[in-house]
Amino acid sequence: MVFDRLRKRDVVTWSAMIGAYAQHSDYQSALQCFKHMQQTGLKPNDVTFLSLLSACSLVGRVEEGCLHFKAMTMDYSITPMLEHYTCLIDLLGQAGYLNEAEDLLESMPLRSGTVGWTCLLGSCRTHGIVELAKRCFDYVVTMNSGNGAGYLFMSTIYAHACMSEHADRVKELRKQANAWKKPAKAFIEVDNQVHGFIVADKTHPHSQQIYQKLKALSMKMREEGHIQCPNLLDEGKEDDLFVHCEKLAIAFGLLSTPRGFTIRIAKNLRMCEDCHVDTKIVSKIEMREIVVKDSYRIHHFKDGLCSCKGYC
Ligand code: ZN
Ligand code: ZN
């Protein structure tokens, strides 16, 4: 390991190491690293704590996260930055402590802007909480009417709650505001060549085989009892379910690498719930390890499970 060979380990390299464990949803190793760093006489800084808090946030360690946050301010006299608060809001919200997350947002000494409220809105989507989501959504679009994620979260929450008229209204507002996220892209390296895919991409030279593979996978998934619900998706028809960019990249990876070979994908945005569920099933039926690094974390799919334990 590169870290083990480093002669000089300073607070930057330790913090990076803790951050890497966080990305892999390995809280215990992140914590060990944190303790080890202190044993060497180094003092953690704001970045170290951000890495540690994110390790807690990515696996739902609420109690530990709150203790680290407290220790940061009380024992180390580090003033929390917006990123620390956002991490804590995400930790509380994703773990179901939505009221506590809202209280923190309203009482914190820094103005969160849209980041914290969008984060809480994302947690409302995870837990299907409509009332609080509406408050978050109002804050978000009032502060920035071009926040594409806000509209997407809110319309999905309404769709989950079978409030399709409300969902349609939010989609209409999104159109009027012209609030679109940057286009999703997924990449895979095969034989030293990087292959990039966008949503519904048909430009790849092996496009035909890729779509055939996706169809075959879809049939196998149905045999496994996996039923997809198109109503919950932002982009319309059921056929579109197959063509999110990471699905194309994974199908290409399955076709172009030998059996047993781990498939590694990078994506510029966060994986959607649908792709996450499907990739777990694909890892099982194809007996492949699939690693997806999205904008939020690293997912290791194996035998029908993901390292994030659904905590995405
Ligand atoms: Zn997707
Ligand atoms: Zn995952």
Write up this protein.
The structure is a single chain. The chain is α+β, with helices and mostly antiparallel strands. The protein is built from 14 helices and 6 strands. The chain has helices spanning 2-5, 11-23, 27-39, 46-57, 62-74, 82-94, 98-107, 113-127, 130-143, 148-160, 164-177, 207-223, 245-256, 273-285, and strands at 185-190, 193-198, 263-267, 290-293, 298-302, 305-306. The protein has a 6-stranded mixed sheet with strand order 2-1-3-4-5-6, with helices on one face. Strand 3 (263-267), helix 14 and strand 4 form a beta-alpha-beta unit. Helix 2 (11-23) runs antiparallel to helix 3 (27-39), helix 6 packs antiparallel against helix 7 (98-107) and helix 6 packs parallel to helix 8. The chain starts with a helix and ends in a 6-residue tail after the last strand. 38% of the residues are buried.
What would the keywords be for this entry?
312 residues; alpha+beta; six-stranded mixed beta sheet; 9% strand; globular
Q: Pick out the low-confidence regions.
A: 229-238
The helix content, as a percent range, equals: 55-70%
Quote the beta fraction.
5-15%
Strand order of the biggest β-sheet = 2-1-3-4-5-6
Number of helices: 14
* Gyration radius from CA atoms, angstroms: 21 Å
* Ligands: zinc ion
Summarize the structure.
This protein is α+β, with helices and mostly antiparallel strands and 312 residues long. Helices cover 56% and strands 9% of the residues.
